[in-house]
Amino acid sequence: MKKFLLWCLGIVLGLLLLIYVFVFSPIGNAIAKPILQSQITKYSPIALTLEEFSFGLKYINIKIAKEQQVLITLQGSYNIFTLNLDLALDAKVNDMSVFSNMAGLELGSSAFTLQSTIQGNVFDELEVAMQSDIAESDTLMNIKLTNLAPTHIKANITHLHIDEILALIGKKPYVSGLLELSALITGESKQNGKEQIQSFDGKALLTLKNGVFNQSFIKKDFGIDVPKTNFVMQLQGLFDDMLLKHQFVFDSNIGKITSNGESNVNTLQTNSTYNVNLSDLSAFTPLIGTKVRGAFKTNGTMSGDQKSMQVQGVSDVADSQTSYNVSLVNLALEKVAFDIQNLKVQNVLYMLYQPQYISANENASGTIWDFDKGISLQVVSTLKGITNNAPIKQNFNLDMPNTAFTSKSEATINKGVGDLDFVLDSALAKVQLSNAKINLNTTHLNTLYTAILPDLSKLQFLTGIKLAGEIVANGEVELADKLKATFHTQSLGGDVNATLNDDTLQAHIKDLDLISLLKMAQYPQVFSAKLNGNLAYNTTKSSGNLKSTLSNGQFLKSQLTDTIAKTTKFDMTGALFNNIVLDSEIKGLVTTSVLDMKSGDFSLNGKNIVLDLEKSTINANLNTAIKDNRIQVKLTGNATSPNVEVDFGELLKNQAGQILQKELGKQLDEKTKQKLNNLKGLFR
What we know:
Layout: H1 2-24, H2 26-43, E1 49-55, E2 59-66, E3 70-78, E4 84-93, H3 100-103, E5 112-121, E6 125-132, E7 138-146, E8 149-161, H4 162-168, E9 175-192, E10 195-213, H5 215-222, E11 230-241, E12 243-252, E13 255-264, E14 270-278, H6 285-288, E15 296-304, E16 308-315, E17 321-329, E18 332-344, H7 345-351, E19 358-369, E20 376-387, H8 389-396, E21 404-414, E22 417-426, E23 430-439, E24 444-453, H9 460-463, E25 471-479, E26 483-489, E27 495-501, E28 504-513, H10 514-521, E29 527-538, E30 543-555, H11 559-568, E31 580-587, E32 590-599, E33 602-612, E34 617-626, E35 629-638, E36 643-647, H12 649-682
Antiparallel strand pairs: 1-2, 2-3, 3-4, 4-5, 5-6, 6-7, 7-8, 8-9, 9-10, 10-11, 11-12, 12-13, 13-14, 14-15, 15-16, 16-17, 17-18, 18-19, 19-20, 20-21, 21-22, 22-23, 23-24, 24-25, 25-26, 26-27, 27-28, 28-29, 29-30, 30-31, 31-32, 32-33, 33-34, 34-35, 35-36
Helix pairs in contact: 1-2
């Protein structure tokens, strides 16, 4: 047993010796120094060198420098057993320009010093003192602690340049001004049952004078012009036992922000009011993180403690009547409930520097929660407004007419996954999304839809051609990494079923009524038939092809049929056509087609039939044949009323030959009779 205890004691002493060697001895310091240097290099925003490192049982000496520009030293003594400290930290920066890269702008070569001391016992009386001329200030601070609880705080800061402090910590100095702090506070620890509580007496006053938003920095980083904005800011705190009465004022040429209330310093229980009344938000763009402008007003109350806090308020943002209730748990956002009435959407777009595509009023209400779990919400929104032609034309090159519309949406989402119902009603389109499935976590949408286009003539700005009639369609849309959609309609007499996969459109056409298609395109109804085929089209390249056949085809009475009937005595309208081949290549709004059709003794075919849907022009050379007689037909000009040229040259030539042959035959017969009669006379 004695040997075992001696063996254990030896191990403990050995470990202590190792700890001493590797932590407190020169050998350990030499080993630790390059490790510390690597960490400094990794995390320091500027290149610093660990020039000296001595860490013993009773002393510490650290020196960090950057050439002659920066020098930081930590020296002093301590007792690791009693936790007595006597340390001094000195920092001297001879050239602020070394922080230029960190700040993102060129800094001057101004200098500052900082000296601080820590003396006393960690768990008894401890005093921290500091003085500095950082940022051209005169800074003095003295803090006394008992058992790490503050019992005396005295601070006096004057003329601290806030822009230099921001640059020093790597923040762009979007504001400048002089910061001043005056504080004298005493503290005392009290026993409240089993709980140790803290009470304070005294006051503190923090002011920012001559505040100015930096217009040039904001313009450079956000690309917006902000008005010259001057401000002063003041935060006053009055400590009375466990209560802190506070008053905050931000006063500027663009408006005011104020807050008043009181808080318990131990539980952080607070009851406060706030009021924001600003005529222009643009100067706050760096704080918000996105371009913003316009007036903003809100006021409300804050009540609760660190564990649970409620913020209730009202606002007239974008000329609305808005109320909100924000719940925080452990100072983290827990739930937001809101009710918005008559929000001017055009004002919101203006505030966000977006084109005012629509002018509309929105009413919305709902609740949002689970901010750290994928977002849950229940929201109902209605919108009533009109589209604005000018910004749509300028930004999308679409000459869309001003169009009145209404919409309604209802969304229920649980931890990022849920359902959406949406209805849009306008003179251009009526669209309904039914029970759409949404996944915000994967940015995925899948929905069935129904779409009605009641008047295609109003969509010329989108289609590029003048159409007529109505289209009713339905299908499914899936939006994830790529867009996928299906489309089905019977509005043209037959069935059209299409699929869109990203930019590839495939359509199957069955028994489509050609007359309905010609009416929709506002072309002459010269031929009736049922069309079957397949369309392949690339939306990115605006090109594709149509492979189709037509059946039960029949010419309707037209200039062409009348002209041919008059000359050939052949009535084209009486012919029935099947297995008609119509193949088209599509480039933009221009089709180049091949046509081949035959019925009995009549046939018609053509190559390179060019139809420009945008210009509504046609250029076609058609070869027709009636028995052995060929007729050339040329269609040119406006597709809705083309010029028709019929070349009967070959037909007339054949007819003339037949007539000549017939007449020659008659003449030959008479002469033969005469000769026979003469021969008969010789033998009489």
